[in-house]
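Sequence, structure tokens reproduced for absentees:
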Amino acid sequence: MSVRCIIVDDEPNAVNLLEILIQQTTQWQLLAKCYDALEALAILKTQEVDIVFLDINMPHLSGMELAGLLPANTQIVFTTAYSEYAADSYGYPTLDYLMKPITLKRFYAAVQKIETHFARKDGDRPLSPPLTEEYFFIKSGKTLHKVLLKDILYFEGEKEYVRLVASTGQLLIYRRMKEIEEQLTAPFIRVHHSYIVNIGRLDKIQDNHIFIGGRQISVSDKFRNQFMEAVRLRTF
């Protein structure tokens, strides 16, 4: 797939890493590497760009300020070491929010999301099936269980494992919550240190609590803004 992108980051090491990741995992056109927002604006005046990998903390003009100046059809992947900007980022055409240091696994997940977005935009066949058909093979003990994403209600972190709770039953996964979170995209969202929920399966939200599958789950302060922004996008 041909996607035209630029990198905007004032840290040379961060720029170099993103360039390597793009080269290793995609066939995209990397049009420019910009070390400040003003340089990026000059590029955007002369070239059509599909997606900007955008750092947030930069001198002169921040990533958030630059995001407000981008053409309407330009998508953004924010790259930052600061999680507190996540909620603000969704006020822009944001496809993903990558926390530094960016791992190959996490970047590849972002690539899948980006290419699916542009495939659907161009009217091509999506690179992955719709949510109702998506699935994971979940390793629990010595068995691989096929679980449809639409059936998953939430993930609950416990001491040495993660409990997957679905409408069809429960499984224990011997992995960390952070590893699970890195492989998931919308409609899954972290709402608590111990919980990732499928926002599409919520029954109701009341007084900072989620009700899902007969369970009441608290939304922690750390994740509340990000969660409520996702809810706001679905609120009439």
Notes: Residues 188 and 198 are 4 Å apart (CA to CA). Residues 104-121 form the longest helix (18 residues).
